[in-house]
């Protein structure tokens, strides 16, 4: 034991005084953690022990309520704080729904997912999980493909499981397949000279004539077709004047031979696909080699893709234009994975070209506007593919984006195309601007819905939890008003008038009033704007149609499901009338896919809501959809098979409706069984499964009975996914590439 040194006293030599013992520092009260662990605490806030161990220290410095008055005051303060935070959240949510501006995008940045095997995730609760979706293997593919919960394929799978349960009969795999391009080996190389077009192109720089290629007169016809269709009614990403000068410069040898151009080939391919699809099958001629119009122009497309590979390391605006137009061609042929890859290349090319930055003021205004239109065309196609396939968007919208392109008279004058103004201070460019705004709002709603944290268990989706379904409906509901605001802001010149004073862009069911003397491109713009609005609404609201946990009557989830059906009904009415009375949508492949999407949605709606107020109208709309498929089916085979599938499904719908009605009459209100086996709340018992099986078995043996291989058939209409159906001589392509 050590002794303290003594202290001498001044004036008294030799006199020593023992030092006073220093008082030990004491703590008035140890924190809860230190008391629990019997450790020495200090007066720091928080204490040193809790700080070192990263624990929550009770010595927070906040006064504790020791009286009833203090407790009441603290509760009141907490309530005010909660209201303040909720107001801030609502404000941020509203800001997130506004259009992106150069000052920044209000969307939150995507989460970064790390491999738990290589990295330790500090807080895994911050990471979101993907829910829903399917692993699909199309009939003519050897590999699985993942499609998310917003895709029609995921909805068809849930519908298929519901039918199997209620009809007591499982689906037979690969029993029936619609006739499509790949069934007939559509893109096999035709008989002719054994010329390898890739090798000839590389060695001589000349285009191959082996295959089905057009002569100069035919090329001119389809190129002129482009300006009145895709250029005005999809996205204006080309300068018409500059392109025509470029095209004329390609012809050499007295107009007998054209120099290679990927952009020209891709435009010809997509216009052949569209133009020939507008003709009856018996008048399509030799340009489709007696086969399917959806892959007409495939030789030009393949040659354009070959030329495009040599631009990948040094891309230009023309390279990006090719990628965007290629994605349109692939979408028309239902090559969805190749479409996704093509859009991915477009996104990376746009970033490489710096289009994600607003153009410099020193750049000519004409070039600035073209770069903006190109960037937002990439945004639109990325949004289309992501929402259709249910996959994450490839374009990051968490950063500042360029200004939206202008639709002013000056911008129209500099665009290179000469179209007359359409009134209301609008031009032919206004369609592109307002369509882009629509996709911005729809994408914001989509992101809010699918990025919400639902705290679902592994493998669960919102259809497995009624509370999650209702919570999802509450998240989606505010966006309905935002989409309605878009319809209100649309110029009158771009709205389709309705008969009997009906409201444009509504679901009131009134017929269209198409202006007789308006130019065809303007009529198509009006139709496609309303078509897109209903189509996007169907896709956004369809997840609220649940086959396993039916929402309670009058709930927000049921209301949105009804809205989904209303939009599908209206889209079917519009498409049928336009096809019957005009040529506006003839051959327009996107209109066919939108109608297929709406028809399958209505089938699912009728299964879940057999007695809703919209049931009769929805059933009539399906008959209109069949008429639409018959119209398209006279021009391309996939649509004809879609009509066959829809007729088979109508038979199922009618059978279940008749069966349920007879059960209700005899058993006091019995309905079909939900996928989770639950009994509806207003029912006291469930009919015997054997009776359902017996009734359907006898019905299914009739000559008109539908086949139950719904999933295989329905998916195959919208998903070929066969490489051989696009690339001529695909088996030998790898050999050609190795020789190059």
TrEMBL record:
<dbReference type="GO" id="GO:0000435">
    <property type="term" value="P:positive regulation of transcription from RNA polymerase II promoter by galactose"/>
</dbReference>
<protein>
    <recommendedName>
        <fullName>Zn(2)-C6 fungal-type domain-containing protein</fullName>
    </recommendedName>
</protein>
<keyword id="KW-0804">Transcription</keyword>
<dbReference type="InterPro" id="IPR051127">
    <property type="entry name" value="Fungal_SecMet_Regulators"/>
</dbReference>
<dbReference type="Pfam" id="PF00172">
    <property type="entry name" value="Zn_clus"/>
</dbReference>
<dbReference type="GO" id="GO:0005634">
    <property type="term" value="C:nucleus"/>
</dbReference>
<keyword id="KW-0805">Transcription regulation</keyword>
<dbReference type="Pfam" id="PF04082">
    <property type="entry name" value="Fungal_trans"/>
</dbReference>
<dbReference type="InterPro" id="IPR036864">
    <property type="entry name" value="Zn2-C6_fun-type_DNA-bd_sf"/>
</dbReference>
<keyword id="KW-0238">DNA-binding</keyword>
<dbReference type="GO" id="GO:0000981">
    <property type="term" value="F:DNA-binding transcription factor activity, RNA polymerase II-specific"/>
</dbReference>
<feature type="compositionally biased region" description="Low complexity">
    <location>
        <begin position="100"/>
        <end position="112"/>
    </location>
</feature>
<dbReference type="InterPro" id="IPR001138">
    <property type="entry name" value="Zn2Cys6_DnaBD"/>
</dbReference>
<dbReference type="GO" id="GO:0006351">
    <property type="term" value="P:DNA-templated transcription"/>
</dbReference>
<dbReference type="InterPro" id="IPR007219">
    <property type="entry name" value="XnlR_reg_dom"/>
</dbReference>
<keyword id="KW-0539">Nucleus</keyword>
<dbReference type="GO" id="GO:0000978">
    <property type="term" value="F:RNA polymerase II cis-regulatory region sequence-specific DNA binding"/>
</dbReference>
<dbReference type="GO" id="GO:0008270">
    <property type="term" value="F:zinc ion binding"/>
</dbReference>
<keyword id="KW-0479">Metal-binding</keyword>
<feature type="region of interest" description="Disordered">
    <location>
        <begin position="87"/>
        <end position="112"/>
    </location>
</feature>
<feature type="domain" description="Zn(2)-C6 fungal-type">
    <location>
        <begin position="30"/>
        <end position="59"/>
    </location>
</feature>
